[in-house]
DNA sequence: AAAACTCGCAACCGCCTAAAT
DNA sequence: TATTTAGGCGGTTGCGAGTTT
């Protein structure tokens, strides 16, 4: 680029740009401009709006923060489940994963993975991408999330209502309940002589108990486990490392569509700040449990009547 | 009370791809 | 067809708040 007298060089232009956290005034300016002109053409927006920001910066601020349907607050257990599941299938395809969590941004999901999930892997001294860790996620973390999911008192979610009786309307508005199939099976690792699924006798039995005998878990590659791999998303069993999404409807969902969760977080669908996190799965619990196992200590297994 | 440490998250960076010229 | 530009994505950084020592 040539520089002419009286014009700014690229370097000078860069120096004129604002960087760092956005101010309230900048937010207002950006929101107002988009309200008048719509999204897109970010470089043009950056030039014409009066914002001294790059187009990229404007785009990021809008998509990750200012856009009205961005949801804020803690990730729900269901959302955590979806992230774990979809990440196991697609890896670090954050934007693709985010398409299935309406109102959640790829940045948020990425942060969740790095700060929560990878932290657990580090504490367990395993690679987050290893089969060991995937097994831990699949056989401990996900079932426990499902237990949280299922034991939520405020959740209008019943086994009956979701066993092959979902209406087309429900499918349309509650895609996650289509994805998270309550008829998932137990994780049975080394503790059962049978690999057949056990039919749940009551509601609580639907949610998988933790295995009593973990002598082979988790320190075996998943493809060596002679039990049955836990698979929350299909009614059958999977022996694959990836959690087979099977025939689930993975049509990306729109954040502008009605929020599909029935949890009573608050009146504002996009605001999860009222969600107190009680139902969140504590990863520290998981870590402690696995550490206890490694050290040979008895492990208390909550939620399960199969361990008495 | 204050320093040190940890954590969560917003924002930036660099690369890649597709569209425009 | 080659080059430029814009947009999108994943990785990384830095800062503020909270917690621990």
Automatic annotation (TrEMBL):
InterPro entries for the chain: EOBI/EOBII-like_plant, Homeodomain-like_sf, Myb_dom, SANT/Myb
Domain of life (superkingdom): Eukaryota
Keyword terms of this UniProt record: DNA-binding, Nucleus, Repeat, Transcription, Transcription regulation
Repressor recorded as keyword: no
Gene3D superfamilies in UniProt: Homeodomain-like
Domain HTH myb-type: 14-66, 67-121
GO terms of molecular function: DNA-binding transcription factor activity; sequence-specific DNA binding
Protein name: Uncharacterized protein
Source species of the chain: Musa acuminata subsp. malaccensis (Wild banana)
